[in-house]
Amino acid sequence: MSDLLRHVRDGLTHETLTGGGADPGSPVALLLHGFPQDATAWDRVVPRLHEAGLRTLAPHQRGYAVGARPGRVAAYRMERLVEDALGLLDEVGVRRAHVVGHDWGGAVAWALAAWAPDRVASLTVASTPHPRALAWAVRHADQGRRSWYIAGFQAPVLPELVMARALRRGGLVRTGLPAEDARRYAGRLGTRSAMRGPVNWYRAALRPGGRGVGKVEVPTTFVWGARDPFLGRAAAERTEQQVRGPYRFVELDADHWLPERRPDDLAGEILRQVGADPSPPA
Questions:
Q1: Model's pTM, two decimal places?
Q2: Structural domains of the chain sorted by starting position, each given as residue range(s) with its CATH number in brackets
């Protein structure tokens, strides 16, 4: 069973689905969703984590929670997104968590592990290569072609209209997102005003002056789908160069939507990483 935790940060009311782990000392998995998902992207993953004795925290991230949608692009800089994750851990009294991220949640997870390694017991990232590997692939491989839409998201107003309409009409189903999930996400983000925050993540990413994400030293698993239309092989394979700690690269015959389409595989890799962590529970 999951409960809804509401916590306030920067005057914004964030919502987090919590559950699992009858023992308060059980390890905690922090699950960070991507675009255009919400915390329910993990609905097929968390039962297996709970069965294994983990507690889970799955927030609707900044821009996605109804009470946490600031309008300014600067509010979505990576530094603020990582602060949200750390603030949530502080709110519930968790010193160290097993951090899991998919898509944009993966980008937050990489930054969190690089900037606050003392708070990260292990890292499992699905789909999203390390930011430095991704930047290299944009310049030297086919990632620029795959990521063309990010430049389009820099325009005012139109991206919100286009993406809200595409989500309502099931446009992402063609990329492999299950129709039932697309409908659920559209219920949260299917209007121009609701889509503004999620699109602002892309706008903030290209603004100058952000803090770079360095190499990661915590135990890390990177899970990537070989049929991902958005994130290509060059960046996926180069990610290993950005991890100094124990590292596993897991390639699946899958598309981008791993939490929804390959939940058992993803849960298994999370549990394998948790079991490999020599530190005491969070």
A1: 0.95
A2: 2-144+213-276 (3.40.50.1820)
